[in-house]
Structure formats: C-alpha cells, structure tokens
Amino acid sequence: MKPYNPLEKENLGKSVAESLLRATPTPLNAIESFEGAGIYAIYYTGDFEAYLPFKKWNCSKENLQLPIYVGKAIPSGGRKGNIDPDVSTKGNQLFKRLQDHRKSIVESDNLNGDNFYCRYLTVDDMWIPLGESLIIQLYRPLWNSAGDGFDNH
User: Fold this and answer.
1) What is the distance between the alpha carbons of residues 120 and 90, in angstroms, rounded to a whole number?
2) How far is C-alpha 121 from the chain's CA centre?
3) φ, ψ for residue 139 (rounded to 5)?
4) What whole-number distance in Å separates Cα of residue 27 and Cα of residue 122?
5) What would the pLDDT profile of 84-101 be if each residue is shown by its tens digit?
6) How far is Cα 30 from Cα 45, in angstroms, rounded to an integer?
7) d(Cα 140, Cα 137) in Å, to the nearest integer?
8) Which of 96, 114, 117, 98 shows the shortest CA–CA distance to 106?
9) Could you give the maximum distance between any two Cα atoms of the chain, in Å?
10) pTM here?
11) Which residues, 6+ apart, have CB-to-CB distance to 10 below 8 Å?
12) Average pLDDT over all residues of the chain
C-alpha cells in the first residue's frame, strides 16, 4: 500500500472541497458583498418539475447534499495568467459571480430565486481550479454537465 501523502494533488483538492461543503448554506438572494475569489456550489430546493430529483437531496437549508451547479471565480487577470500576488485577494470576483447567477435565475421564466442556496469559499488563487474540478467530479452537477454550464463566462 502506498503511504498517505497529504501534499498530493488529490488530497489538497479534497481539503479545499471539504471546506466548501462545510460552509454555511446561504440563500442566493441574500448574499451580501464580500471580497475575494474562490469556489461555490449552488443548490436547488424548489418544485420545478424538471429539477424535482434535487428536492429529495436538498430537502432543507440544513440538508443540502446535491449541488445543481459548481463554479469558480478567479482573481482579475487570472484567465491570462496575470495575477498579481499582492492584489489577488482584492476585489469581489466571487460575490459578482454569484450575483450573475442570481440575476440569470431571476430573469428566467420558470425558476424562483428563493429556491436557490449556495455555499461559497474564498480560496487562494492557486487552489481554485483544483477545488472546483474535484467537486464537479464528485457530484457531476446537472448544470455543469448539460452543455457548457450555467451562465458560462
């Protein structure tokens, strides 16, 4: 048997993922502005027929088990590799990303924003993609696997 290495990529990713999944669920409509970049999971709790299977797994705010979407918000300049380590924790990229989702849901014809909760975690920029990837692999969220994802940027 191979000895446990806490610094292996998978174990580091699990640490980030587990921290997100322990975060307190918050109604998507009630998030207040905060700073940082990171990862998030969105959960559905409503009665829209196409998403009823989620209700079984997300029967209450205290019992959210199956995200409908998992995403990330990286620091400004991150897509092009231009992250300044002195300012990578500045800005409110994660908050803005969650607000983009809230707006898309509110603008839809068949979804009620009150039926969505999220967990979010500000994360050092180098661990964001690893944490997001691991959670997507674990849960295969519907909106991540159907097309290019929800509200793809």
Assistant:
1) 16
2) 8
3) -105, -20
4) 17
5) 555 545 689 999 999 999
6) 15
7) 6
8) 114
9) 54
10) 0.86
11) 134
12) 86
- Which phi and psi (to 5°) does residue 35 adopt? -100, 150
In three-state form (DSSP H/G/I as H, E/B as E, the rest C), the secondary structure along the chain is CCCCCCCCHHHHHHHHHHHHHHCCCEEHHHCCCCCCCEEEEEEECCCCHHHHHHHHHEEECCEECCCCEEEEECCCCHHHCCCCCCCCCCCCHHHHHHHHHHHHHHHCCCCCHHHEEEEEEECCHHHHHHHHHHHHHHHCCHHHHCCCCCCCC
Work out the number of other CB atoms within 10 angstroms of the CB of residue 37: 26
Rounded Cα distance between 63 and 57, Å, is 8
Q: Encoding tokens for residue 111?
A: 């979804």
Edge-to-edge strand list for the sheet holding 116-122: 26-27, 116-122, 38-44, 69-73
How high is the pLDDT of residue 101? 96
User: Are residues 118 and 26 in contact, defined by beta-carbon separation less than 8 angstroms?
Assistant: yes
Q: How many CB atoms lie within 10 A of CB 22?
A: 9
pLDDT tens readout for residues 45-86: 999 999 988 988 998 888 899 999 999 999 865 444 445 555
Residue 112 CB: number of other CB atoms within 10 A? 15
